[in-house]
Design a protein that fits this description.
By secondary structure, the chain is an alpha+beta fold. It has one domain (about 50-340). Helices cover about 35% and strands about 25% of the residues. The protein has seven helices and twelve strands. The strands form two sheets. Strands 1, 2, 5, 7, 8 and 10 form a six-stranded antiparallel sheet that branches. Strand 11 and strand 12 (about 315-335) form a beta hairpin. Helix 3 (about 40-75) packs parallel to helix 5 and helix 4 (about 115-135) packs antiparallel against helix 5. The longest helix is centred in the first third of the chain and has 32 residues, at about 40-75.
Length: about 350
């Protein structure tokens, strides 16, 4: 008997036989099969539970890496230069003195908001993807936490001042006459005429936990003119106000002097946490400046400047700090016949 005939006989025998009902245990076993196959080990559930958290940390790491790349490459970042003590760039062979009458030198241009805009757009895209593509509530919650922390970090960098005057040198220069007897206590008095130029220098410190790059000064201490990209024109700050028109640095970071031979034009300065840089301000008086000492006058008034706007870059984000001067700047002004009155 060959194999084909044997197979045909067996099929014939089985076709004519009733197998009867299935054993009771078979139904129980069949019901248990899906449960057994679908059940995973408790150890396998741990990675699944950590997936939303891992995704959140991964997103934060990605955004952090992106910001670091921007800070290292930097949109519009200039090439690094050698630095001397106190974060001041080393003197160059082709030296020229700082000219306080050259308006615009050391005045920061309008802010570059490309990096912060990209981060905000990335957060928006992440929120859309989490809403549309993710059904898990845990993953959506984790994504919301990541986006919230990123937004808080970005806006904290933008709003928290990282530079200021804490201690160090402060020198009054061109136009200065005295530091006592002013109507505002502890002011430096400068006697300059209408739109006259005066100079003042002080140590600016990095008071934050991250390194910063000093980009320049804003024409006014609240940043309004800087934020809209206006230069140090007469209308950018307001008639009758003292405004910053230029900024410079020391030629030798160890020689504190405002003489032209000891200064140089502004350059971008890198400051690590705790480092300081002596900056020189050139300021112009308003149209009402008196041009002389008024402390002996029966009636007198002063224009006063207490703060200046310092523009800097921190991890690729440009922002401005309103820095209080070591001593306010007071300029005697006309009481009557003032063009701005």
């Amino acid at each position: 008997m060959n194999d084909d005939r044997l197979e045909a006989e067996i099929r014939s025998m089985l076709a004519g036989r009733d197998a009867g009902a299935a054993p009771a245990r078979l139904h129980v076993a069949l019901r248990q099969i899906p449960t057994t196959l679908g059940r995973s080990s408790p150890l396998m559930n741990i990675p699944r539970r950590l997936m939303p958290l891992a995704a959140g940390f991964g997103t934060v790491a990605l955004l952090a890496a992106f910001v670091v790349v921007i800070s290292l490459v930097g949109v519009g970042r200039v090439a690094p230069r050698p630095v001397g003590p106190g974060g001041s760039p080393a003197p160059q062979s082709s030296w020229v003195p700082f000219d306080p009458t050259a308006d615009g030198t050391g005045i920061a241009s309008a802010p570059n908001d490309v990096p912060i805009s990209i981060v905000l757009v990335a957060c928006g895209v992440l929120a859309v993807v989490a809403t549309v593509r993710t059904k898990s509530r845990r993953r959506r919650a984790a994504t919301g936490v990541v986006i919230g922390l990123t937004m808080v970090a970005v806006f904290s960098l933008r709003s928290t001042p990282f530079v200021g005057w804490t201690t160090g040198e402060a020198i009054a220069g061109l136009g200065w006459i005295d530091s006592s007897g002013a109507r505002m206590s502890a002011s430096n008095i400068f006697a300059v005429g209408p739109y006259g130029v005066l100079t003042y220098g002080f140590d600016l410190s990095n008071t934050g936990p991250l390194p910063v790059d000093l980009l320049g000064l804003a024409p006014d201490p609240v940043g309004g003119a800087w934020a809209v990209g206006m230069g140090p024109s007469q209308t950018s700050v307001g008639a009758g106000s003292i405004r910053v028109t230029a900024a410079g640095l020391l030629r030798d970071p160890n020689v504190y002097s405002l003489l032209p031979s000891d200064t140089r034009p502004w350059d971008r300065v890198h400051l690590s946490p705790g480092e300081h840089q002596f900056v020189i301000l050139a300021l112009r008086a308003g149209p009402c400046a008196l041009g002389r000492d008024n402390r002996g006058d029966e009636f007198g008034s002063d224009d006063v400047l207490e703060r200046v706007g310092v523009v800097y870059d921190v991890v690729g984000i440009q922002t401005m700090a309103s820095v209080t001067l070591p001593r306010p700047i007071a300029i005697p002004r006309q009481v009557n016949n003032c063009p701005a009155a």
